[in-house]
Amino acid sequence: MCCRSYVIFMRKISLILVLCCGLIGPGSGTSRCRATPSTTETATPNAVPVSAAEFGRLRALYAHNAGQSLDVRSVRRERRPEYSTEYLTLRGARGARVPAYIVLPRAARAARPAPGIVLLHGLGGSAEEMLPIGSYLAFMGYATVIPEIVGHGARRDAANPLFRGDAVRLREGLIESVQDVRRALDVFAARREVDERRIGLVGLSLGAILGAITTAVDARIATSVLVVGGADWRLLLAGSGSDGAHLSTASDLTVLEAVDPKTFVGHIAPRPVLMLNGRRDTVIPVDAARTLFAAAREPKKQIWFDAGHRLPPLQVIATLQKWLGRELAPGPPLASRLSP
């Protein structure tokens, strides 16, 4: 890739990260951010993960009908000098058609498969909007799968929005989303160009919330990076401009316990998890980000930026490159030693 093309490419990546990191869409977040990352932050009392028995019960809710036909339909393919992109649909866990993109680096082949990344968009986003990030990851040598979350993109239902209905609708939509992400991972991991032993997950905002759950319930994921994520629906729904602010009763919050990342994130260990958050984020409140980190077990790391919901894109890219390069390096990954 020539220098000029690379500069243009990086500008696109920066823009898409700025736009896609919003839980409630491109207009969310606070003022300008300064790239001053830090791993220090006010301590939060340690959260106690649910018992193994309770986790097993909750994990069963996310079973993704692995024996059911995926019925993959390729819609279109595009080849570029550095990577190829395929847009496809697959049968979801509950019968819906799930759109997804698969981006493969040029060098990926059966004899030399690439490590893979599950890439999850935020609220109000779409799989298509994440393509520039998938393209950059391909430039770094990673294959990506980008599935569409329930209620977004081609799956958007204007008459039944995900966060504006009742708590049961939200819970079921989030569970179905995780199930469908797992089915998209079935398709992805079966590709000969993808090293199924080295698969990570990167989730942005709502994608980070779902990513924490997905990583916990699916041991094929060796590591996860949760960008501007959080936990505890009482805190999350109080975020600025949240479409789900009306879901604040005790009964609503009880319903949402089955989709609360704090219930799951402690069961990602011993696989490593990285969290990136902004100290001035009002979309994902700081207390929600602290709660998610407190509920996780070692090995874990949280990096704080002097930013709102929009983190400094180039710093995020550099952090991703370093973390994924280490955790998905060749060798026996943790995921291969865990039961599926």
Secondary-structure blueprint:
Blueprint: H1 3-20, E1 34-38, H2 52-60, E2 73-79, E3 83-91, E4 97-105, E5 114-120, H3 131-139, E6 143-147, H4 167-189, E7 194-204, H5 206-217, E8 223-227, H6 233-236, H7 250-255, H8 261-264, E9 273-278, H9 286-295, E10 300-306, H10 313-327
Parallel strand pairs: 5-6, 5-7, 7-8, 8-9, 9-10
Antiparallel strand pairs: 1-10, 2-3, 3-4, 4-6
Helix pairs in contact: 4-5
Tell me what the structure shows.
With 340 residues, the protein is an alpha/beta fold. It has one domain (3-23, 70-328): Alpha/Beta hydrolase fold, catalytic domain (Rossmann fold, 3-Layer(aba) Sandwich). It contains ten helices and ten strands. A ten-stranded mixed beta sheet has the order 1-10-9-8-7-5-6-4-3-2, with helices on both faces. α4 (167-189) crosses α5 (206-217).
Rg, Cα atoms, Å: 18 Å
| Secondary-structure class | alpha/beta
Biggest β-sheet description:
10 strands, mixed
So how many helices?
A: 10
CATH homologous superfamily descriptor: Alpha/Beta hydrolase fold, catalytic domain
In angstroms, what separates the terminal alpha carbons? Answer: 39 Å
Give the overall silhouette: globular
What's the multimeric state? Answer: single chain
Q: What order do the SSEs take from the amino end to the carboxyl end, as H and E?
A: HEHEEEEHEHEHEHHHEHEH
* CATH architectural arrangement: 3-Layer(aba) Sandwich
> What's the number of extended β-strand segments?
10
Cross-sheet strand order for the largest sheet: 1-10-9-8-7-5-6-4-3-2
Residue share in β-strands: 15-25%
Measured as a percent range, the helix fraction is 25-40%
Q: pLDDT under 50 segments (min length 5)? A: 1-10, 18-35, 332-340
CATH class group = Alpha Beta
